[in-house]
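Write out this protein's structure.
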Amino acid sequence: MKRSGFILFISIVFFWALSSCGQKKGTRTDTPTSGLAEIVADECFAPIVQEQVDVFEALNRDATIISIYANEMQAFDLFMKDSVRVIIAARELSPGEEQIIKDRQQTIRSQKYATDAIALIVNKANPDTLITVADIKRIMTGEIRSWKDLNPKSPLGEIAISFDSPNSSTVRYIRDSICGGTLGGNLKARASDSTRTIDLAERTPNQQVIDYVASTPNAVGIIGVNWISNPSDSTNLSFISNIKVMGVSRAEKATDRNSFQPLAAYVGLGKYPLSRDLFIIISDVRGGLPSGFVNFAAGERGQRIVYKAGLYPAYALTRVVSIRPSL
């Protein structure tokens, strides 16, 4: 009798253990402010995304966000394979991509995150600091190949165009939105590997663009504005000092009055021509850490980081002013 009772006890413990293991396997342990989560972001926006990750983790000591940076093609490849559940990018999902995620029984949440500006940077020795959208198209399609074609008095010769990666969102924007789908053969990428993710501890392709332009008098670089914003300027009215940032005009001839630099105020007012919307997309909206980070990034505190990085926030920021009555 004792033996049968012991066997019954062992059986109960065994089935309880199995049921507990199965329950743990299907139960989430993360919360909106704790746990571990991975996100992927277009490398064009790495500085701003990394700052948001750092602030979020500082505010939530039990949260760890592993941020992966890659060119646009690789970032979406990771997201569509369900390797990560959050992506920050310069386009929304296509209808076909949405259907793939819905077929996995996942719910998609996509929202505007910021408005970015694409900057044209030149060497400090370059006397030309103004350019029209029409001339940008002529340069990028190969119709214009020399600075003298833009300014006969220029001391510089061939235009050396530099960008980050053939598969970057920046190149896609220039190709589709400025050049009508065609680029010339005179563009040079700093990175050619379409499958490698980016380590911010290394010299990233965008950092290489800045370094190349800073050391090459005849170069022009195409880059996201958050890479060149001056981090020490609280007014957001200046850029890093080792390059010059061109003013861009929609007019036939660029002048000081009709040309604008990629400052957040000009982007918000629609005066700067080379702007694009950024989106934060999540396929895991069940209230865990990925959702918590998305809410932070799109919330007021996260949007202040967006503005500080030189981008225009997706949502209006409030400012509380205390007024003392006069005595």
